[in-house]
Amino acid sequence: MTRARGDEVAVVADVRLPGGADPFGGALVDVHIAQGRIRDVAPAAALPRRGSVLDGGGAWLIPGLWDHHVHTVQWALSAQRLDLSSAASAAHAARLMSEAPVVTGGRRVGCGFRDGLWPDAPTRAVLDAMTGEVPTYLVNADLHSVWLNGAALRREGLPLDDAGVVREEPAFEISRRLNDVGAQAADRAVAEMAAAAAARGVVGLVDFDMAWNEDAWARRLAAGFDVLRIEFGIYPADLERALDEGLRTGDVVRGATSDLVRVGALKAITDGSLGTRTAACSHAYPGDPHNHGTLTIAPNELRRLMTAATAGGIRCAIHAIGDVANTHALDAFAATGAWGSIEHAQLVAHADLPRFARLGVAVSVQPEHAVDDRDLTDELWAQQTALAYPLRALSDTGATLRFGSDAPVAPLDPWAAMASAVWRARDGREPWHIEQSLDAATALAASTRGGSGPGSAMIEPGAVADLVVCAHDPMTATEQTLRGMPVAATMIGGRLTHVV
Q1: What pTM, to 2 d.p., does this model score?
Q2: Which pLDDT tens digit goes with each residue over 146-157?
Q3: Which residues contact 69 (CB under 8 A, 6 or more apart)?
């Protein structure tokens, strides 16, 4: 019988387990499921196949994949915005925006530009000349800056300065306004995004939308959302409310009949980004001797926030990109006894590498960023003495790695993250710092709910039946095969969320 999305599966038949985690030596197996969990794993047809059977056809079965860092609504809406990743200069980006469609709210919105190596600087005059009186917004690929024309600056009540560029919190506020398209439009875009993620084997994501997220997810659940597991973040502006209302990490959304959406972590952004030249670093940026980046939360304030969150039972997820920011974040974990993760950790001092494992702080990293930013890193961080994108170095110390995309900074696709982590390359270029590559088993584990540490997802009796049937063994796949991995089926607790 042909299986369809929503069907409950009792047996996943005739599949193989990935090499290195396969006690059956490559032989076909059946995975038996009951009440949302794996009941048994046995040689094919060794046990009666009772109930609904999904024929794996000799493909590989892996644990369900997670993306541990997504800006959900912003990623969902990016499909409606002009892709500026090809822009080679400010003038080129402005010209592209002159032809962009006018979207919700009478705006032109583009996203994904990277200006760090442009030969010219963004200016309001250049953008005004090409876009006129239509409010026009260009969101940097790293989300930490937005370039606006004069009409957009006036609309947002911002000064008409020469550059037209806002950075950090003012940029985040502009993104919040752009993302406010109304519940119906946002939820429709999120539903489409979730279906696309399930088709890539994703069973869950961590949502770091800059909003009060519980209400939005309760609304989506009430409307029938059932495609992904979600853990949502809480930002400092909402921490007091969350504590007053008794939210704790791991709690199910209040009033929901489903347990798919749970309270996640306090998300605190402590510095900027590489692309916007605001990541807090020990050495100055080239050509700008007074610019060491920006600490957006003072160390004492960070400790106060983390102490309050921890006392209230809320995990911490601390954005730190530059080496100075990572040191302060680790110091705060040590001082407060908080638990959780550091998000990004793109530049880490050698002395700080072993502290993640020692403190039990997970490293939530986005391997595609290393490949995206390789030229920018070589240019802007050439004088830094800390280690850039140190995946292997962190893993070797025993740190737990959790992979994500930071979508829309990179597309939500765990296969791409795995490929970049293992091969450190894309588009036919030579590998970049191959000494920091990971083995495939670690990369796959880092792409599951528990990450690469002791809580890594396994296919074994008693485990939650969040599973993916894919066409090739990820342990032996080439870079191109990983990036293009066909996914035949995805299931949450044995229920199909995607099937070919």
Answers
A1: 0.96
A2: 999 999 999 999
A3: 206, 208, 343, 364, 366, 404, 405, 406, 407
